[in-house]
Amino acid sequence: MTYGMRRRIVSAMFVGACALSVLIALVPLAMILFFVVREGIQSLNVALFTQMPRPVGETGGGMLNAFVGTLILTALGASAAVPIGIVSGIFMSEYKGSRFAVAVRFAADTLNGVPSIVVGIFAYGIAVLPFRQFSALAGGVALGIMMIPIVARTTEELLLLVPGALREGALALGATRARAVFTVIVPAALPGIVTGILLALARIAGETAPLLFTSFNNQFFSTNLRQPISSATVQIYTYATSPYVDQHRQAWAAALVLVAFVFVCSLAARFVTARVQRLRG
Amino acid sequence: MMIRRYGLAACLMAAVMVAACGGNQPQTSEQGAAAPGSPVQINGAGATFPNPIYSKWFAEYHKRHPEIQINYQPIGSGGGIRQLTSRTVFFGASDMPMKDDDLKAAPGPILHFPTVLGAVVPIYNLMGVTDLKFTGPLLADIYLGKVKKWNDPAIAKANPGVKLPSTDIAVVHRSEGSGTTFIFVDYLAKVSPEFKDKVGVNASVNWPTGIGGKGNEGVAGLVSQTPGALGYVELIYALQNNIAFGAVQNAAGDFVKASPDAVTKAAAGANIPEDFRVSITNASGAGAYPISSFTYLLLYQEPTDKVQGKAMVDFVRWAAADGQKFATELGYAPLPQNVAAQELKSLEKIKVS
Amino acid sequence: MGDRGDLGFRLAIGAVALLVVAVVVGIGVLLVRQSWLSIQEFGVRFWLTRTWDPVAGEFGALAFVWGTLYSSILALLIATPIALGIAVFISELSPVVLRGPLTFLTELLAAIPSIVYGLWGIFVLIPLVRSLQAATPESIKALPFFSGPPFGVGMLSAGLILAVMVIPFTSSVAREVLKTVPVAQREAAYALGATRFEAIRAAMFFARTGIVGAVMLGFGRALGETMAVTMVIGNRPNITLSLFEQQHTMAAVIANEFTEATGDLYLHALIEIGLVLFVITLIVNAGSRVLIWAMGRTRTPQLAAAPAAAGAAA
Known about the structure:
The complex is a heterotrimer.
Chain A: H1 3-43, H2 46-50, H3 64-94, H4 99-113, H5 116-128, H6 136-161, H7 164-172, H8 177-205, H9 232-240, H10 245-280
Helix pairs in contact in A: 1-10, 3-4, 3-6, 3-8, 3-9, 4-6, 5-6, 6-8, 7-8, 8-10, 9-10
Chain B: H1 2-22, E1 40-46, H2 51-64, E2 68-74, H3 77-85, E3 91-94, H4 100-105, E4 110-124, E5 133-134, H5 136-144, H6 153-158, E6 170-174, H7 179-191, H8 193-198, E7 211-213, H9 215-225, E8 229-234, H10 235-240, E9 247-249, E10 255-256, H11 260-267, E11 292-300, H12 306-320, H13 337-347
Parallel strand pairs in B: 1-2, 1-3, 5-9, 6-7, 6-8
Antiparallel strand pairs in B: 3-11, 4-8, 4-11, 9-10
Helix pairs in contact in B: 5-7, 12-13
Chain C: H1 2-33, H2 36-42, E1 52-53, E2 58-59, H3 62-93, H4 96-111, H5 114-134, H6 138-141, H7 155-179, H8 183-191, H9 196-206, H10 208-224, H11 227-232, H12 250-257, H13 264-295, H14 301-304, H15 306-313
């Protein structure tokens, strides 16, 4: 075997190994999706979305309060995180040289990496203890904190991609900085920002740990923000670790709903990005 | 133009938030009863031991009084005591009576109200083996890690003629502070001085061996999914999930399998103090089940919210009377008559007006 | 007038951006304040003792640190080669038409909520691992890494699940890093007659700081994971080399015991664990970003935003 042949064989093996690693990574993905779909689809019925949980040990019932709770908590988190995130992103991109912007960027990246359980401790400290009350609001605070850095960094990144010519044109026409940002630059980056928000929503809708001691749980239907509230993720956790087969069934179905939601958000994000790229040419 | 669009969206969101805040406002007030029909939401947390019957009770009570929503979260007795003393929930539930130190440290005097009696049973997952018998010292040795395999001579001795496999025993215990654990180790400490010495009696102990499951549900789940596992749960969790559970030898020498009857026998003749804090494990008496216990609802004597306080007092009154009929079908034993009567008197101590 | 308006604008949005910094600082402050009792009581001993005894009031977090490090390093060992392989494949080797779908699929892996991983872990992975453990020949079982009865629940399951969760993070950042290696570099390699392997190896060497950063990012992710781990690891403070035995991690013990930590010392001990988790992930993530930034110093801003992209895909 010549040296050249050996090199080519090594190279082929390497290429093969890389392809193999792709396949290896796809195996767990396929398995998870397969099981979630197979187990979840059997239990996916109208009752899951329209009925309340039955007393422990009885079969049947649904997770209406849990799904509504997740919607409320996600909306709460987003209502704080979207404005704060977008504005912070604008700041970081507009004044990106300044030391303060560097600090904000560092803070945002740090926040992104904080384990969700630690965010839960923080939210417990500022939103539960002072009011002596577990509440949907506290859960929303926790989720909002987790969402802010994602929205902020994607906004910043996208605003930096807006061609300088647009900004210069606006300023040349006499716009104030504020006007230039809000009427020209942000709208130009809007599709990407929306994508970032969608992905962030998908991420926080699937969070469990920070809700365990903020929004707690509630077996009744509740939209009261100052009371504990159920959520799909905490309910899946409760059901998965219980011995009741009927609850396991419902846990799979809820997991399927969550995964479908995440899937749709990811697809939508890709679609928006692709469309923008096509428009930009 | 863009600002107007954003502004509109922001206003809409704000409106939704305000509406959500305004709606479903629970009736809380310092004085006076709730106006009939206005919703009262009460939050409680605690033991998983009585969760099946509490879950049934709160659902049934809600049917009879639709304006009252009692949201109970089973996080373990330790959690119930903790959240109650932090006042992040209105009432607690625990199988373990609160210790003197904890009572002193609480922001106000707390009263115990027994609701039902239950049994802690040893559940196991062994193919083809049902009706195992355990002695107290044997259970202690398993949980001390001294007996490691199912075909250990100690187990064979208590179960003559039963074919035991050589698999390892997967010991399962609670991962969090649990009244069920308290009842179980209270019994083990009484029958095994070594256990009392090495492990001690509390809601959360330093287990020498084993896997941690969260709640009675977690332990039942782990045992039913792990071949060779042994755990301890409240009777109803074994019954509802068709998990095999063993008979335990009581102080009189009988091997008793838990049942509401056997639990009632354990409570008979027990001396119930005025504050209801008592242990009835290792009861003597023929047919008494040795790992039985009361379980308690914990309420502040001077509740901060009188409306919720009155609602809970009414509930406990209902539970001690009409609620008891749900007990046996869920595997719990109803309160002895004298205890129920004593409890109604104790309820009057709570200041609700 | 324009200048003053601009200043007002800067102050206004700066104030909002300040909130982000305030939150991070606030987290640190709250964690320190609410763990003070434990810090005072135990000091450094806290991190060197393995006894976690709420009954006696003796708290030592060594077992949790062990479990966290062991599970995360195990996850890294499994995930890194696979993640780098994926990154190389997608950016260098795959046909262009496959790139989009493959990227989408790896992003999907990152987007699956950890509770769903945990659910799958309990009902699918653990029985699998249990059969694997039961089928292990006795000679291997004699090794300290494989001792213990086959319950499925344990360090191996935790490591596997964490590995799957870490793969998309490391691979997406590594992909971004590889994209910024100048084309000229690769062309030069091919011009000199390099095989694909040799050219890619050169590119990876060029990007080595960034790749280390990508790996560290994955490590940071594994350190903080809570739900999937607590559902499969057994929740037992236990310092052992064995992959088959149940162990515990810092994040899992907080999730399990927080709501019922009776007594302030217990709660403060748990929060102290949270504080250290916060500090460790801060250092690891900052370190990884510094490495990636150092690599991208002369490159496009897209590289600096790579962790954000990874975060958004998370």
